[in-house]
Amino acid sequence: MLRLIKLELQKLLLNRASKVLIFISFILPFTVLVLSSIKINFFGFFTLELGELGIFNFPIIWHITTFFAAQFKFFFAIVVVSMIGNEYSNKTIKQNLIDGLSKKEFILSKFYTIVFFSLLATVLIGVSSLLIGLYYSSYTEAAIIVRETDFLLAYFVKLVGFFSLCLFFGMLVKRSAFALGFLFVLFILENIILGLITWQFNYDIAEKIQNYFPLKSMYKLIDQPFQRIVMTKFPDKQEIAYDYAVHWHEFVIVIAWTAIFVFLSYRLLKKRDL
């Protein structure tokens, strides 16, 4: 596994565009650190500091930081599809196979790299969230600090699942731009199917079915935290309550899709004439 990861890292770090995109994909999520220290002066009447609003308290901080960090995954998605596009355009895929790398090892090298970067991103977000929380949070008890750290696991699984989907699209079309376009097509398709099921049955049934779709299931791992933030300010308003927790069946769905995408990528490569 380490040999395959090293092989991929060599290719990525020799590519200037990939290095820039990897740097951006890791730096942008840390804008939450900047936001936490922002003070907004409203014409001298009062000063608003985001960190003082309680949104960086434990345990809600795990939910907020992982949700916003996940929005920047598109940048590394470009790296993933580029890994495949460059292999075909530079003919390195054929050379790798000639040099003794099996087709299975080729796909695994891409997948292991995805897991490596996803794990690295999760550790960085985890450490930064912990530091922000220790600075701003009113609650510093160990039991409260570690509560809801399952959002970090959800963040990791979400990244691996999404990048595995990008890997599959990259293998399918061999072109980076088209592969990214397929993500948009899949998003539109999922919503069209949602509309058709809603029209045939009702929205509640359609939404439950949509939760099993690839993109939607990945999104559901970490639900939006805005409603929860409002709930902390208005705890008596029961009508805004919702289920924001991470559930085991959501992990199972995304992990299943990840396995499917990696397997399909391997099948495509195995049947393709290089």
Automatic annotation (TrEMBL):
Alphabetized UniProt keyword annotations: Membrane, Transmembrane, Transmembrane helix
Name this protein carries in UniProt: ABC transporter permease
Transmembrane domains' residue ranges: 20-40, 60-84, 111-132, 152-173, 180-201, 251-269
Keyword Transmembrane among record annotations: yes
Signal peptide: none
Species assigned in the record: Geojedonia litorea
Record's keyword annotation contains Hydrolase: no
